Amino acid sequence: MDSLTHIVVGAAVGDLMLGKKIGNRAMVWGALAGSVPDFDVFANFFTDELGGLEVHRGITHSWFFMLFGSLLLAWLERRWYRGGWRLTKGYPWLRGAVFLLLYVLLVALVSGVTGFLAGWYALIPVSLGLGIGWMVFRNVYFNQIIGFEDHAQEPGQVSFRSWYLLFGLGILTHIVLDCATAYGTQIWLPFSNQRVSWGNMAVVDILFSLPMVISVPIAAALPRRSMLRKVLLISGLSISALYWGNTLVRRDKVEAIWQKTLVAMQIPANRHFIAPTLMNNIVWHGVAVAADSIYVGDYAFTDSRPEFRITGRYSYWVNPPPDLNGSRAWRILTWFSKGFYRWEEEGIGYSFTDLRFGGIPAESDDDGVFKFHLVRDASDAWHVAGGREGSEQDIREGLRRLWVRMQGLP
After folding, report:
1. Average model confidence (pLDDT) for the chain?
2. CB atoms within 10 A of CB 327
């Protein structure tokens, strides 16, 4: 899911774990724990887009990292607070700069909003990251958030076990949230690269995040031993958890409707996929694969009739074009898409569309958000040319169509 959600959920869990002992520092370290799996995006600086698809939501999102990465983080945390260099005059400035950098990078670069939107919209998460970073830096310097406020316990006295649980639970929240989306998460690495995807929530779901976005900042302003602080955090987590449970129920209903629609239309589907569209849990997207065709449709809970609208039917070829057969590009893209794809010849190359992400219903035959343009490079190997993002005008039009679709069909 988006970085802001991971940050606030991790902060709440961290505070409930150690907030009474070390105050708001527990929130900060909990937020870091809830965000650290997404540090795998930095691999994009060292590999191409195809490599990034393999790495993202990989080992850092696995049970292995949760168990053993937490050991390393807990050890580093103990070293951080027990080192004598923390008492130097430059230390507050150093840690403030570190947290500023981390928050800017996390919210501006990792945010799912930045990955989807284009143009000036990217300034939204960037500005948010700068604002949060400045707040953290300012409070660090004045010893309010990271410092020893309210006579909080010295973090160096916190047990290794407590730090381990804080980081482990923070990472676990990240993994569970990401498993809920259509993207998929490789939680079984290093033993299997199968992606787990429950498909009950969108990558960005405002209604899920909102209770935590409201409760965490308010709780941070209260004394660490305040009962209201604890009530706020538990209430925020509980409301989000109830919403989460509701999305699972809705998913089961949508799957039943999709299956009934396929039967009613005499579509002999051998497998199918459903997931909510971006930023909501009202409009759902469905894909079904038959012997030689693949069908795409959408359904909204506001529709007057409980049935999917078929928005596209495409020829389905399991085998790749001869010149793509055996290529790294084909292997990665078919694995990533879980077989829900279509490909077409395109100029001197091919287009490959992952149909699981047709999140914005369209009246045209372009039902894919994740479309990859494949061309040969100088070494005659296939690679992705250009980004997946559409123009600002296309995105605005897509969001407009999504809003209209949320109103339902008569």
Report:
1. 82
2. 18
